[in-house]
Amino acid sequence: MKKIYKNIIACFSAAALLTGCAEELDLSNPTALSIDELLQTENGFQFLANGVLDAYQKVPANEFLLTELRSDNVRANSENGNYPDFNAFNIDPNNGDVATYYSNNYATIKHANTIIDNRFLAPEKYQYAVGEAYFMRALCHFNLVRSYQNIPYVDKVLDVTKDEALDYPQLPEEEVYEKIIEDFKTSIAYLSGESLNRYRPSAGAAICLAAKAYLSQPNPNYTEAELLLASVIDNNDDYGFDLITTPRGGNSITDHFENLIKDYGHVFGNALDSNGFTDGVPDGSWVNSPALEINKEVIFSIAYDLALSDNYVTADSDLGSQVQTDSESHSFAMTLQGPSNGVNIASLDFLQVMTPDLQPVRFYGSIDALSYNPSIPTNDTFNAKFPTAGEIGDNDWIVLRYADVLLLYVEAIMAGGETTTDSRALDAFNQVRERAGLDPEFIISKQILLDERRVEFVYENQRLFDLIRLGEADRVLQKFSDDNSLFYTNEKKYLPFPQRERDNLPNFYKQNDGY
């Protein structure tokens, strides 16, 4: 019975493979070769696919400013430029980070469209590159629609000399999601049967993200999301996905908790610089360990390294094709080494739920214990998920991991209801909970699910989107805003449409409400 889901997935996109293609290109590739030269080389599509991933490395660099910093999880140092304005929901449409995030996602989409426009020229052995392009185009639009709401869905390389952008107006949110889901499904058809490489899009990742898109659209399709997620969870061994956790054996409860703490750090490619523990508390600090970053919990991640990362060149290698000149390393600014002593400082609200007693495992993998001092309300408590010793942080950026899939499955089974006792939901939920060293739940409410996601994915840019998706953003963020004298209103769930884009095409793009 388990294998029936795979047959369903394989049938999703057969028709999507029969669409037409364009011949003209407009792209400065990260290699020294021109587009025409790449299309004539045997492995040119591989280079083009690498260029898509290279372009995406710029996206996480400021994503947390626009997502996690606009949640109740974190705050910015009061001396940190205009970053406190993000946290206060007081963002100007002319803000550079708002425009940069928008343009970096569309720059990646342009690279992906170069492959898609020429997909019928791809040799058989490089068909996976076409699948990766559809995947990345969907992912970038998914980022954009969740951040800006009504956006253009750009499905070809645009000729700027012909004003082709005027053919791509802002679309209603539901239409954007339809196109995102179709692109993810098309990528599945191309990527099915390819060997898993967690640094590159895969069929399994596309299935899970299509499900997340089904759950995120204005009218969620819980049935389709549940089907897709079940196809991965019921066959997780075949896909190569699982939680990193040490099963409870004959060791003491103290030893078990120490193993769980190390396991949780390993998810993010981090290891303790000392193996010692004192009363269950790590003696050392976390350091990035590239050998740990490719692990079974990671479904898809973006590689960062000083030079090369698993067959695609990183933007940190000083290639001359940068779309933006800001640093691509996401981890530096998120820690105490970052500008003005960091921006992702834990909020007092979050420190009420993230304590060593309440979260005996996740606390030590998420919070920099050396900076934790709840007795001083103004103390800056930093995160520990992205340790870095310098401006170029080596931590990979995890786009999707298996814990997210398990909790999304619970959400799909709940289907908009307030509670569930479904055995499948309980099993998935308690896998995540027990890995955190906590007792299992026997009834799951929407609030319990939100609370679990909050502590599991803190600093991973999920909280704001979770609140919006589950219909709790106004309730939670309005209270957080009122308690902290901030400026949240219901329109501020979404970012302003970049003024730079509106100025480029006067009277074409509509500004979002509230700005």
From TrEMBL:
Main location per the UniProt record: membrane
UniProt family annotation: Belongs to the SusD family.
InterPro entries in UniProt: SusD-like_N (IPR033985), SusD_RagB_dom (IPR012944), TPR-like_helical_dom_sf (IPR011990)
SUPFAM superfamilies: TPR-like
Signal listed as a keyword: yes
Pfam families referenced in this protein's UniProt entry, alphabetically: SusD-like_3, SusD_RagB
Membrane-spanning parts: none
Keyword Signal: yes
Keywords noted in UniProt: Cell outer membrane, Membrane, Signal
Gene3D superfamilies: 1.25.40.390
Domain SusD-like N-terminal: 46-215
Protein name: RagB/SusD family nutrient uptake outer membrane protein
